[in-house]
Amino acid sequence: MNYYSTNKQAAQASLEEAVIKGLAGDKGLYMPERIRRLDEAVIRNLKNRTFHETACAVAQAFFGEDLERDTLEAIVKDTLSFDTPVVRVKEAVYSLELYHGPTLAFKDVGARFMARLLGHFIGKRGLKQVNVLVATSGDTGSAVANGFLGVEGIHVYVLYPKGKVSPIQECQFTTLGRNITALEIDGTFDDCQALVKAAFTDEELNRQKMLTSANSINVARFLPQSFYYFHAYAQLDKAGRAEQLVVSVPSGNFGNITAGLFARQMGLPVKRFIAANNRNDVFLEYLNTGTYNPRPSVSTLANAMDVGDPSNFARILDLYGADETTHRTITQFISGCRFTDEEIADAITRVHAADSYLLDPHGACGYLALEQKLQKGETGLFLETAHPAKFKDTIDAILHTDIEIPAKLQAFMKGTKQSTALSKDFAAFKDYLLGK
Ligand SMILES: *Cc1c(COP(=O)(O)O)cnc(C)c1O
Question: What is the DSSP string of 15-80?
Fold first, then answer.
């Protein structure tokens, strides 16, 4: 299947090209030229299938033309060595816990899938080395580093702002070694991102090195995120709770919710979606006014959602025609919400006290959106995108607790930190990559 660019200027690409390049030549995002619907019978029968079987059926619809069935199933199997359970929080409100992977956040799924798929294409083409550059404010770096750890033919450079990621986050990508290099940049997250962007457009660097990105602009990272929407539906259907399903997605770059919208286009019976935001609310403003006005992000307790210009917005527009009817179409089944840090903290406190359920600051936005918008007769599902212990300091300060750190996270904390300090100067970064 071919992939076109949302900017419509670049030539179409094969899956292989789209995955290796990440972004299209015209700086648009790649979109599959067709979204295949699953048969209704298949969807009705999801409740009798395992997560692996469900994910294989979805993966086949996207990637079946481009990969042998065995290869694809092996990649899916390797991606999903952990489950994503649906947990009931209270009457009609369920949490989809996406944090049972190696770094305890949903990005593990996409990162792992992309690592395996890219590894496969590199082997097939006989490429020597592809370099993955990733700027992180914390969570993306750890998921990408762990997903790509030990994959042959790939070297990962994680750029992170010195002193601005939590110690737990930092040890998840600085202690791995092997094909993972952590670069501690003397600057902010925006400086890290600017270095990565500058690298992708530097001619000399791209002549000498194969560079690609591993954030949710890459189709191999965001499409697999549709797997768990089907799996969540299956679990609710089994419990007799899948009618009038409303899915609330804590959103930053909007990759996760876009994968949900793809699932709906494939026939998954979701009545509507809610994009739950923190104070970074450009999408809500678009829903309310029809005007998209990107701006610099502000810091919040849900920092993985501190995004002022969500990259997957272009995909959402494209999915619904990118014309004068698009705004009306979108507002028919996507609504938005914004929450302040005070509201997030309050939700964490209330849900812990009343329902004995521990939310993380991102999941708290998803929960709050349901509390605000769920109507009679609907079942609400929010995505719990990270384990609360990843934000231990925040949670402990809010609840006056000392929450336990899961063994998986503790294991990272025992490793030795290895990182290379660099300034935020592009020339120095470029020299470093070129081995000068
Ligand atoms: C990345 C992230 C999000 C936002 O996901 P998008 O796909 O960027 O919208 C939400 N919560 C957590 C914990 C994250 O790491």
Answer: HHHHHHH-B-TTSPBEEES--PPPPHHHHHTGGGS-HHHHHHHHHHHHHTTTS-HHHHHHHHHHH-
* Residue type present at position 315: R
Domains delineated in the chain: 84-106+222-405 (3.40.50.1100)
Amino acid at 326: T
Outline where DSSP puts E strands in 191-340: 210-213, 245-250, 272-277, 334-338
Q: How many CA atoms lie within 13 A of 84 on its CB side?
A: 36
Is 107 annotated in the active site? yes
What pTM, to 2 d.p., does this model score?
0.95
In angstroms and rounded to an integer, the radius of gyration of the C-alpha atoms of the chain is 21
**Residue 141 in contact with ligand 1 by CB distance below 6 A:** no
Query: Rounded distance, CA 267 to CA 9, Å?
Result: 30
- Integer angstrom CA distances of residue 394 from 281, 298, 359, 361, 433: 22, 17, 11, 8, 36
Strand pairing of 245-250 and 3-5?
unpaired
pLDDT of 333 > 90? The answer is yes
Is residue 277 within 6 Å of ligand 1 at its C-beta?
A: no
Tens of pLDDT, residue by residue over 60-109, are 999 999 999 999 999 999 999 888 999 999 999 999 999 999 999 999 99
